[in-house]
Input
Amino acid sequence: MTNLAPPEPSSLAYLGPTGTFTEQALYTQDDLTTLDLCPAPSMPEVFRQVVAGEVDLGFAAIENSIEGSVNVTQDTLAFEVDLLVQREVVISVQLNLMVAAGTSLADIQRVCSYPHAIAQCRGWLAEHLPDTEVQATNSTADAARLLAEHPDGRTAAIAPGRAAEAYGLDVLAGDIEDHPENQTRFVLVAADGIPAPSGHDKTSLVVFQRADRPGSLLGILQEFAARSINLTRLESRPTKQGLGDYCFIMDLEGHIADELVADCLRNLHMKHGDVKFLGSYPAAGTKGDQVRTEASAASQSADEWLANLRGRIRT
Output
């Protein structure tokens, strides 16, 4: 696996405690697991530690294919801190209903978990535990930890399998998520540094409109269309400056080192409003390494072709 981390990082903060889905995603990245891993009590705290220089890297969920954006991550990056995305990681969601030993489905009166996880199991809960109280926790693993500390025989937690192992709980029902194709996207962030182009990259940014006027969004989108740049995500978010004041959060294919991407960002900043750059980084995907290899080979071939032509210029 290619090491895509910033130079010589030594520590990383992620949403804890032990057993979170975030930790499960983190452990898919071999190079990151060798770092000093620091569980944090909340996502904003993950980013605060990076900004304060207490850790080198932060790792947090930013988007789910069913529930959409994780707003606390997205808004913190857009409005509260100046950090750059170094990498994205996408993994499939697998959630379980877990209980203390001896608890049956009929005993359960309360289900605890992170709000996004609860939302991803609505159908299963409606069918199997329709009258059960639902209680939010700071993370899926926090729900499992609290249950292990206070096994009252009436409470269940929704969490990944890693949490059951970490806290000695029984999995009463596995794979209870409503959509089997459910995936969550995570981002690795650092205080500075942009990874070099890999041949299969993504760029994230926030565009703040100078004025709310008819056609303003169209004007922004035309900058991408004119250069045949593909947007993979477009979302409006309130700027927190006043009712009706919105900005646009975008992901696009390409790297800021690409001339077309750089020209697009230049025009956006000049014509349409302030632009906050969130990073250019290797895109995730099962075929990412293959795409990067093919792009590198194509680039080398193109360089050799161009060099051959230039070598024929008369001097």
